[in-house]
Design a protein that fits this description.
single chain, 342 residues, ten-stranded antiparallel β-sheet
Length: 342
């Protein structure tokens, strides 16, 4: 038997299959330091233990997206090692904060399969859960991936496309135990804008841009242990090595601080698309649109639903062309819920 892992291909998946991913990882304050070195991340709740304690938490958690990347990275060798592209996300929930010292592991269930008409690839839907050392689910989400076939003659599986929520309802969101924004310090957070200051339909140009280089992308991809060939092997795609989609998400989220400094905690991921590939040398800019707002019933804590769009230097607020397709400058279209002081 071969000792090495060549990864799963489309014909290797079956509905209901459960994958237990290696290797558990204990996250530390070093994780935060590296994350903040890679991105201009500066939301106060993730930067200061004292600020977090003033908001009712025992200490500053690991950034929500850093925890997401750890959980996601564990799944790559079993799900997307032979992927052509990661296509989308749905029903993502952050169920409790991840703190330094927590150990994370991941498991996934195959919930959908559809072979593409070319017979060379297919789409695999999986529901992934990230668990801590107490077997508590800290993150869960659905994603779908286009994966190559190894045996082109393999019989196509019965098509199963899961029925996924278009968006999480406010009641689906989980507010961390103890979180309380009633004494929130807006001056330390960096901006005065609270949930009531934003209007549904409002758009925000986050102004700043960051040019992506190979060095930090490769560091991020290794840090999150995302071993997908498209991110490592320059010979795998004729157009070059893809920048890891999680790198684009985190960069856009960090850039959104300018205008959304008080959108503190990621709690829901309604949907997302990596609309166009990102390569080294592209300059990432970001803009947001307010889609909805809701009360949570927790002191001082509101929820705001946002569309976060990352572009490669494109015009702000230009999302789709006349044909309804994404503008070629759009890299990411992400729909998420965040917690914000009322």
């Amino acid at each position: 038997m071969a000792k090495t892992n060549s990864g799963r291909f489309f014909e290797d998946y079956s509905i209901g299959q459960v994958l237990h991913h290696a290797v558990p990882r204990t996250v530390t304050v070093g994780e935060r330091a590296l994350y903040h070195a890679l991105y201009p991340a500066r939301h106060a709740l993730y930067s200061s233990d004292e600020f977090a304690r003033s908001c009712g938490l025992p200490q500053s958690p690991i950034d929500d997206l850093a925890a997401f990347h750890v959980v996601f990275g564990k799944t790559v060798p079993d799900i997307s090692l032979n992927a052509v592209a990661n296509l989308g996300y749905a029903e993502g929930r952050w169920l409790q904060p991840v703190y330094p010292g927590d150990t994370l592991r991941s498991e996934s269930e195959v919930i959908g399969l559809k072979q593409n008409s070319n017979g060379k690839t297919g789409v695999v839907w999986v529901r992934t859960r990230g668990l801590n050392q107490r077997d508590e689910v800290v993150i869960e989400y659905v994603r779908w991936v286009m994966v190559r076939k190894s045996n082109l003659d393999a019989v196509a599986p019965e098509t199963v496309v899961p029925d996924l929520k278009k968006a999480l309802a406010p009641g689906d969101l989980v507010v961390p135990n103890g979180l309380d924004f009633s004494k929130y310090d807006f001056s330390l957070a960096g901006e005065p804008h609270r949930c009531g200051d934003y209007q549904i339909g409002e758009t925000i140009d986050h102004v700043d841009g960051v040019t992506v280089e190979e060095a930090e992308h490769m560091l991020a991809t290794r840090l999150w242990q995302n071993t997908a060939k498209v991110h490592f092997d320059l010979t795998f795609r004729p157009d070059g090595r893809l920048i890891y989609g999680g790198h684009v998400i985190s960069m856009a989220r960090a850039l959104s601080f300018n205008g959304l400094a008080n959108a503190q905690m990621f709690v829901g991921l309604n949907g997302g698309a990596h609309a166009n590939p990102c390569f080294a040398g592209d300059t990432i800019k970001a803009w947001s649109e307010v889609l909805d707002k809701a009360e949570t019933g927790v002191p001082g804590v509101g929820a705001i639903r946002l569309r976060l769009v990352a572009t490669k230097g494109g015009e702000a607020f230009a999302l789709r062309g006349p044909d309804g397709k994404y503008s070629p400058d759009v890299l990411l279209d992400l729909d998420y819920w965040a917690l914000m002081p009322i």
